[in-house]
Amino acid sequence: MAILKIGKMVMGSLFKKPATLMYPVVPRKWQERTRGHIDIAIEDCILCGICARKCPTNAITVAKETKSWTIRRMQCIQCSCCVEVCPKKCLDNKNEYTTPSTEKLVDSFEKPAAEAAPAGELRAAPDGAAASAGAATPAPVPADGTLKCGDTCIYCGICAKKCPQEALTVSRKKKNAQTGEQEGENIWSVDAENCILCGICVEVCPKKSLAIE
What we know:
Layout: H1 2-14, E1 37-40, H2 50-54, E2 60-63, E3 68-72, H3 81-85, E4 91-94, E5 106-110, E6 122-124, H4 129-133, E7 140-142, E8 147-149, H5 158-162, E9 168-171, E10 174-175, E11 182-183, E12 187-190, H6 200-204, E13 210-212
Antiparallel strand pairs: 1-4, 2-3, 3-5, 6-7, 8-13, 9-12, 10-11
């Protein structure tokens, strides 16, 4: 009886479709919600490094010196944390998995060199500059635009806390507990060399006193 059952199973299997997929020979169709691998639009990346600092597995490395963005594929857990915190929204979690390999894959992307803008030419400001002015489209700013602070600043320090480059310094007057008088100065300053004009401070400013001009 056992032989007959086995024989019946074998004969039936010969005329049925295989129960498994011949992956990777036959590509699988992934669902839209599948988290497969992190992709980057390197031309939009500002190399702020927020994604690398927020990555729970330290799978991402950002090098400003070489203008490169690197990810260790086998170390990435596809949590999408980097996608969520990217200020320029240049990261995306694609639904295709990384190609199988016997080696640990490391993908590196190098940001293309920016073309020098001709004299007098204007470029678009980073996202947030237009929002602060209530404009529908980004306001044009000079190619050598700088971050500026208006008279409505309350020196709350939120911009300095959110700056990925730690390029902002904010201090405000303090009340002397004994005399009751205000001491010190209200100071807002920006380190132009470290500022990457990402526009994050412009977006978070509660008084909309920051702008890139």
